[in-house]
Amino acid sequence: MFRFQETLPKLPLPSLKKTCEGYLNMVRPLLTESEFIITRKAVMDFHQGVGKQLQNQLKMIDLSTNTSYLHAFMEDNYLENRSPLPVNRNPVTLAEPISEYSNLTFPHFVANIVHNTLIFYMNIKNRELSPDIEIGKDKGHLYGMCMFQYDKMFGSTRIPCIKRDIFQVHNNSVHAIVIYRNVFYTLPLIKEGKISVVREIEQKIKWIIKDVPFGPPVGVLTGMNRTDWAIIRFYMASVSKKNKRSLELIDKALFVICLDETFPYSLEEELKNGFYGFQNRWFDKPIQLIFTPNNCWSFNMEHTGFDGYLKVKFFREVNRKIQGYKQVVTTCDPPKKLQWELNQKVLKEIDRASIALESLNARHELMVLEFKEFGSDWVESHGLDSDAFFQLAIQLAYIRLHGHIGSISEVVGTRNFQYGRFETFLTVTDESVKFIKTISEADSNEIRYSYLKRAVNAHYQNILNCKQGNYIRFHLFALRTLALYQGLAIDMFQDNAYKNIFCQPIVCTTSLGPRYISCSPFVTAHGYSINYTISKEKIVLNVLTSEQRAEEFIKEINLSLLELKNIAEVK
């Protein structure tokens, strides 16, 4: 599992000069000339002044840690955030439909996935999971990936606290938690190092879903503001030993199994159930496997310990017909119902949390587009990178919808470094702005294609820069955080370009590759989130927004893809 770990390089600390130059290049297309003059002066002052002191401090941190200069800052960024987890923080990813599962009963279907999940967990625990490998663009070179995040997937939880949450990992967990009709059960799954067989898991699921009355939705409390939830949780544990024991059992569980009764009839409805649903949930757990009776399932993820890229391997290993495993047991303990003692104060908070989540969901709009005109094969056959091609379509669509250029970000995984996680960069470049202008100004598609090619190449170069550890966003984030901790007021970090454009992209985009469609939060109050998959023959995407313009944006993306196709066809 850790075969490549020691050979991976440490995440490099970029030079201050290179980061400042890269930052200016990234924000320049999004600023007027007068705005850019102000921003450039603030950056130069920072580079020549207090930035040197902060960079030297980062160097000392980098030399003194076995992880990376960013590791502690990233963890604080997650755990200090007070926003509610649902919609604001937790992403969801859908499992692909599997033909072998279509005719199974619901309990049998759930048992299959749970059993495969246990195999996945045991392979991590026993260090038998195959190492992740990335294939280079030349198709001939394989790169090992950092595997440390896998140890934070199972038996872990986020504990709410007043100012900063705690992330805990329990290494010897043997049970999962099942939630059905808001009633919680422990589900013992491992005994003496052996996992339950499918048949036993199926029987326990059948027992759980047999004539269970609805319980109070205690789990909605995990969807509150983190400080509010911390106060309520401390109170619940202090007034009742039963509450305290139930909370401990949830914290120590390997993962959570949510047995819903909704029947999502489309991809869009599946995403909404996984992303919006707040009954039958416990958002503090990094792994919530959400099942519906039509044998669909999804993965709602608390983000502190690991990134979405790990879900790709998880689905590949788990979402398939039952795999043989030699270490099995047929006699685990039966499920037990968790006990709650909920007085009027707690019940009132549950009602308040439910109303707040209903209101939060009502303010958001989610829509899906399945674009079947072409996929990555067609784009790449015309000499273009498919991801860059799609990102240009988003830029064009945003301009057509809003009448101006918008700040758009993309996430890039960086597990090619030890303890690497991800970087985000702004996708609008000088080259993409020039290309979009040529769409209306150029005389021929040959000219438009030449500018399209330059814009695609510029985008691809930005991805390579991230992959090479040339962080800009998170390097500046670490510098700014150090400054805040020391009470330093720095003009560069108060500048409009940094505060409102660089750190608050109006459109956040991400992809987990060609197979897995996700939904994840956006950053700004009136922004958008676009998740997409580009397979060989089609593009599937969804738009999440509070602006109530998701349908318009999707229409513009569809038209933009067709327009770019028309331009690329000259090749």
Could you please describe the fold and organization of this structure?
Belongs to the carnitine/choline acetyltransferase family. This is Acyltransferase domain-containing protein. The active site is at residue 303. It comes from Desulfonema magnum. This protein has 571 residues and is an alpha+beta fold. It has 19 helices and 21 strands. The protein has 2 domains: 11-77 and 365-568, 2-Layer Sandwich (Chloramphenicol Acetyltransferase), CATH 3.30.559; 88-113 and 157-304 and 320-362, Chloramphenicol Acetyltransferase (2-Layer Sandwich). 44% of the residues lie in helices and 16% in strands. The strands form 5 sheets. It has an 8-stranded mixed beta sheet with strand order 14-7-6-10-11-12-1-19, sandwiched between helices. The chain is globular, with a radius of gyration of 24 Å.
